[in-house]
Amino acid sequence: MVARRTLFTKFCVYHNPCSTNGGYNIGNRRLYKNSRASDWQAAIREACPHRRPLAKQHFEVQIDFYFKVAISDIDGPVKFTLDAMEGLVYKNDKQVWKLQVNKNLDRKCPRAEIRVYKLPTKHKSTRKRKR
Fold first, then answer.
1. Strands 58-67 and 96-105, how do they pair?
2. Could you tell me what percent of the chain has a pLDDT over 90?
């Protein structure tokens, strides 16, 4: 019998996806997140319908990015997107075991369509606990 994934949540973020290349600035000898990255993450948090993270669950995340221009990197917005869902969908993005990302072009309506699936938790720790 093959264990199946189940849809956990899905939502659409109507905002231009922010890449990691354009999401950081340097100032006073340090790297910090700029307003483009913060706005993108705020848009994700606002659009996400789920508000109770699951701690002991593995997830598959599918993201369809729709960019204004074709030169945008496909992997650029992934980190900000996964980080923004921490505390809403999952406790930590380490719980994401599968990731599928698609790049599309839509000059009039840039967005991200996000689907999160619960995976069967079959990877139990084999480590022995110290007593």
1. parallel
2. 59
**Which residue has 């789920």 as its token pair?**
50
SS3 of 17, please?
Answer: coil
Domain containing 106: what range?
Answer: 6-119
pLDDT on residue 30:
83
- Please check whether residue 82 lies inside any domain of the structure: yes
Helix (H, G, I), strand (E, B) or coil at 44: helix
User: 48: which 2 tokens?
Assistant: 């996400």
pLDDT digits (tens, 9 = 90+) for 12-31: 999 988 887 777 788 888 88
- What separation in angstroms does the CA of 56 have from each of 16, 53, 66, 124? 32, 9, 31, 10
| CA 7 to chain CA centroid, nearest Å | 15
pTM for this one? 0.84
In the chain, the number of structural domains is: 1
Residue 129 lies in a domain: no
